[in-house]
Amino acid sequence: MSQTVRVGVAVLITRGNEVLLLRRANVHGAGSWAPPGGHLEYGEAPEECAMREAKEETGLDVAAVEFRALTNDIFPEGKHYITLFMQAVEWAGEPSVAAPSEASEIGWFDWHALPQPLFLPFQNLLKGQCYPSTGMQDERPNAPGETRL
C-alpha cells in the first residue's frame, strides 16, 4: 500500500438537468461511472487540468471552469486521493469516447437517474462528504441558463 496522496481533478459538464459521465475502463475504478477527469500534473493549475482532461476523454472544448468542491477519497485497495471537482462554465462540441483506453461508454444522465456503480469520489460528492459540504443529494434541475450544481 502506497502512503502517497494523489490529486485528481474531475470536471462536471452539465446540460440542463443532466451530467456527462464516462464508464471507466482499464483504469483505477474500472466499470464505475464518473465525470471526466484525471491526475493533476506537476505545474498545472486545476482549471487547466479540467480543460485538458475534458478534451482528452470526451473531445469537448471547455473554455472556462469554476471550483465546486473537493473530496477526500480513501479506496478499499489502499489508494488515497484528494479530488478537486470543477464545473464547466462554457463548453462546445459533441461528446464522444475520445480515450477508449480510459473509458468504454459516455452519456448524459439525469441527476435523479444516475447509472451504477458510481466512482468513489463522485459518490462522496453526491453524499455531501466534501468540502465545502454542499453535497448534491438534494439536487434540483437547473433553470434555463443556470450553471450551478
Descriptive report:
The protein has a single domain, classed as Nucleoside Triphosphate Pyrophosphohydrolase (Alpha-Beta Complex), CATH 3.90.79. By secondary structure, the chain is mainly β. The model is unreliable at 137-149 (pLDDT under 50). The strands form two sheets. It has a four-stranded mixed β-sheet. Strands 2, 3, 4 and 8 form a four-stranded antiparallel β-sheet that branches. Helices cover 14% and strands 38% of the residues. It is globular and about 40 Å long. The termini are far apart. The chain contains two helices and eight strands, in the order βββββαβββα. The chain has helices at 46-58, 120-127; strands at residues 5-12, 14-15, 18-24, 33-34, 37-39, 61-74, 80-92, 103-110. Strand 2 (14-15) and strand 3 (18-24) form a beta hairpin.
Q: What structural class do the secondary elements suggest?
A: mainly beta
Strand portion, in percent? 35-45%
- Helices and strands, in order, run as EEEEEHEEEH
- Uncertain residue ranges: 137-149
User: How does CATH name the architecture?
Assistant: Alpha-Beta Complex
Termini, distance in Å? Answer: 34 Å
Give a short account of the largest sheet: 4 strands, mixed
Under CATH, the topology can be stated as Nucleoside Triphosphate Pyrophosphohydrolase
Mean pLDDT: 90
Short description:
This protein has 149 residues and is mainly beta. Helices cover 14% and strands 38% of the residues. The N and C termini lie far apart (34 Å).
Topology (SSEs and partners):
Layout: E1 5-12, E2 14-15, E3 18-24, E4 33-34, E5 37-39, H1 46-58, E6 61-74, E7 80-92, E8 103-110, H2 120-127
Parallel strand pairs: 1-7
Antiparallel strand pairs: 1-5, 2-3, 3-4, 3-8, 6-7
